Fold this protein.
Amino acid sequence: MANDQNEKTEEATPKRKQKERDKGHIAKSQDFTSSLMLTFGLGLIMVMGSKMQDKLSAMLITTFSQLSPKNISNNDAIGILAPFVGYYADIVLLFFALLAIGAIIIMRFQTGALFAKEALKPNFKKLSPASVFKNLIDKINIFKPKQMVELVKSLLKTIIVAVVGFNIIMKRRDDLFGLIGADPSTGFVVIGSVILELLTSLCILLIIIGILDRYYQTWEYNKSIKMTKQEVKDEWKNIEGDPKIKGKIRSFQMKIMQQKMMANVKEADVVVVNPTHFAVALMYNPEKVPAPVVVAKGVDFIAFKIREIAKNNNIPIVENKPLARSLYKLVEVNQIIPQELYTAVAEILHYVYSQKGK
C-alpha cells in the first residue's frame, strides 16, 4: 500500500502544470523548432532570392569595375569599405530581421505566452563547482535513458538525411555529369535546382521528424510531472482546506447559529410542535414584517431544547402536527412564512393572543 502511494500514477493537476510552467519546465521539441526555422529560412530565400542576387551582382560589378589597385591607399580603407557595408546591409538586414521575427513566432507557437518567473530568480547553487560538475557528467553520460534516446534520435536523423540526400543526388546525377564543359550560367542553374530540391526534401522530412519528436516530448513531459496519489490529496487539501479543519469550522459555525437561534426563542410569540419530534418558534411584529417569521426550528434534541426554553420563558406551546411539519420543511430560520400557511398560523396566533388578552 505504501508503494502504491509513492508511485507517480496520477496525471498532473492544473496547479502542478502551472507551477512547472512558472519554472520554465514545459514540453518543447528542439527538432520541431529547427525544422520550422529551416523551412521558413528556405522560404525567405525563395521569395527574396532574386532581389538579393541582383544586389549581390551590383556589388560585384562595383568591386571589379570601379576599383583600381593603383588608386587605393591606406587612408582610403574606410571610404572604400563603406559602400560594401551598405550593399551587405541592404542584402541581409531585411532577411535576418524577418528570420528573427519568424523565430519569435515559431517559439510562441510551440510554447505559448511563457513568462517563467521562477526561472528568472538567481540560483547560486547551480554555479557551485559540484553542481556544474554534476550537470556536465549528466550531459556526457550516454547511458542515462534520456541521453540514450537523444543519441539514437541523432543517429537516426543523420542516417535518414544522408539517405535522402544520396537518393536525390543519384537521381540528378545525369544533370550533374552534363555540367562537364558547360558554361557557368548553366552550371549555376542546375546546381541551384539540385540544392533547392535537396533542401525542400530535407525540410519536409525534418518537419515530419519534428512533429513526431513533439509528440514524444509531450509524452515525456507529462510522464515526468505525474504525481502520487498522496501529492494529489495534499494539493486538494491546500486548495480547499483540510477536511478535518473544515469539519471543525463547520461544526463551530453550526454551534454559533444554534446558540443564536435558541436565544431568539425567548422573543417568540408561540412554538408549534409535533408534539416531540418537531418544534418551530414563530414571532410576529406587524410594524416590521407583513407576516409571521420563523425564528427557530429543529427536530428531536433541538426540538426538545426549543420546547424547554419556551417553557422557561412562558412562551405558549401549541401542538399542530401538520403545521409543524410544513413550517419545518418549507421555511428557513429568519424567513417569513409562505402565503398558504397564513390561515393556519393566524388561527394559532389568534388563540394565543386571546389567552394573553391581547
Notes: The chain has two domains: 26-224, 250-356.
